[in-house]
Amino acid sequence: MTRSYEYAHTVGFEETNFVGNVYYANHLRWQGRCREMFLRDKSPGVLAELQNGLAFITTRCSCEYFAELEPFDEIVIRMTLLEHVQNRVTMGFDYIRLRDGGEELVARGEQQIASMRRSATGLTPEAVPTELRDALRQYAQ
Question: Could you give the percent of the chain with pLDDT greater than 90?
Answer without folding.
Answer: 93
